[in-house]
Design brief:
This protein has 22 helices and 2 strands.
Length: about 400
């Protein structure tokens, strides 16, 4: 491997902190033997372990994953689209731009919805190119007329900016976009939007390994959406927040809390059926099952997770981005169970469904490294995939 792995970065950061493996193991709660295997590249770090190591080393998780992957972003012509997005997010409080003539509200709403669909389809390049101008235009419209629908459209654009920044690995920018989502949702007086913002905020603490704070924020999200009128939107957001809480509890290894949230989400999904798109969310029995697989993986219950995954058949309208993420998670579990061929087939499915997202996924990168190191380096398809991802 010519590109540093997570294990390489962990070892380098540990040494810069003047810590031995024993010292980092004590600080993180990870066993010395497990840490040694990760640093030597003989075992990938789970998200839970990676977050624990990052907190012990006082660095963001992204420092250990190596995000953003600038070489791959440049290869896909995505790196040059980040600065315009930063600038568009920064002018939120400047009022109306006298040089901008906004389109009617219906056109702004349609554009925001279109960009949301493109994010779900994993067309990150198109979304990144169009978002800055759309945000600038809709910001001016919101400050000019103050109509609730315009503020809702602006919140939608900010939420799409959060998705793009997260998928590209610019987590600082994602946090800014999430704050802007809350700011616009408040002006729209929209409890659904405010709750979705808190839901995503909880997930930022999941990534950082601060599960207790994430659970507290998820509780706020549930209380917030309870203020909305009954209907599919409230059900979808409520169910999705329960799923986020289940994932947070799984990372904290709290099985009883996991089971409670999965059961409640399953109860809601039984009444809603499949809701393929509602406020950027895809809720229903499929998403509950997919999250159930995820929490089993996070609890190292790999055999149970893979048994459940075999019975999942996503509906045709399910977003490609979500399906690809699920395949990547299952591939990780299959690698840990020693079924490298099955893991690679799942990685191929993820690439087919959402190539841009898959190429920039830390889970995919570390899983293909594991497949190569498990003795599959001579396979031309595996070698080609590893090169495509950018780990060789």
């Amino acid at each position: 491997m010519t590109t540093p792995t997570e294990g390489d970065r962990i070892a380098q950061t540990r040494k810069l902190r003047h810590l031995t493996q024993q010292g980092l193991a004590r600080a993180s709660g990870v066993s010395v033997s497990h840490l040694a295997q990760i640093e030597q590249g003989r075992r990938p770090a789970s998200p839970t372990v990676l977050a624990a190591l990052a907190r012990a080393l006082s660095v963001p998780v992204a420092d250990l994953t190596g995000q953003p992957y600038l070489q791959e972003l440049r290869r896909d012509h995505l790196d040059g689209l980040i600065q315009p997005l930063r600038e568009a997010l920064d002018i939120y409080d400047l009022g109306a731009d006298p040089d901008v003539a906004p389109r009617p509200v219906q056109a702004l709403e349609a554009h925001a919805d279109r960009l949301c669909r493109l994010v779900r389809a994993s067309d990150l390049r198109t979304v990144s190119a169009e978002l800055p101008a759309a945000i600038v235009e809709t910001t001016t419209a919101a400050h000019t007329g103050g109509e609730r629908r315009v503020w809702q459209a602006l919140a939608s654009l900010y939420r799409s900016a959060y998705d793009v920044a997260s998928k590209l690995g610019f987590y600082d920018l994602a946090s800014i976009a999430l704050d802007r989502t809350g700011w616009a949702a408040e002006r729209a007086s929209d409890a659904h939007l405010a709750a979705v913002r808190q839901y995503n905020r909880a997930l930022t603490y999941l990534r950082a390994g601060d599960y207790r704070t994430g659970m507290r924020i998820a509780d706020i999200a549930r209380r917030t959406v309870a203020q909305a009128d009954p209907g599919p939107s409230r059900d979808a957001v409520t169910g999705q927040v329960h799923l986020a809480s289940a994932v947070l509890a799984a990372r904290a290894q709290d099985r009883d809390t996991v089971a409670g949230h999965i059961a409640e989400a399953d109860r809601i999904a039984a009444s809603t059926g499949e809701i393929p798109q509602e406020l950027w969310l895809s809720f229903g029995p499929t998403n509950v099952a997919v999250h159930h697989v995820s929490v089993l993986i996070d609890q190292t219950r790999y055999a149970e997770a893979l048994d459940l995954a075999r019975g999942i058949h996503a509906p045709a309208e399910w977003p490609a981005s979500r399906a690809a993420h699920h395949h990547a998670e299952v591939a990780r579990a299959q690698l840990w169970m020693g079924t490298t061929d099955s893991a690679f087939r799942r990685l191929l499915l993820a690439r087919h469904l959402a190539p841009q997202q898959t190429r920039l996924s830390p889970v995919v990168r570390e899983t293909i490294v594991g497949v190569v190191r498990a003795g599959r380096a001579g396979n031309e398809d595996v070698a080609s995939y590893a090169k495509w991802v950018g780990v060789v």
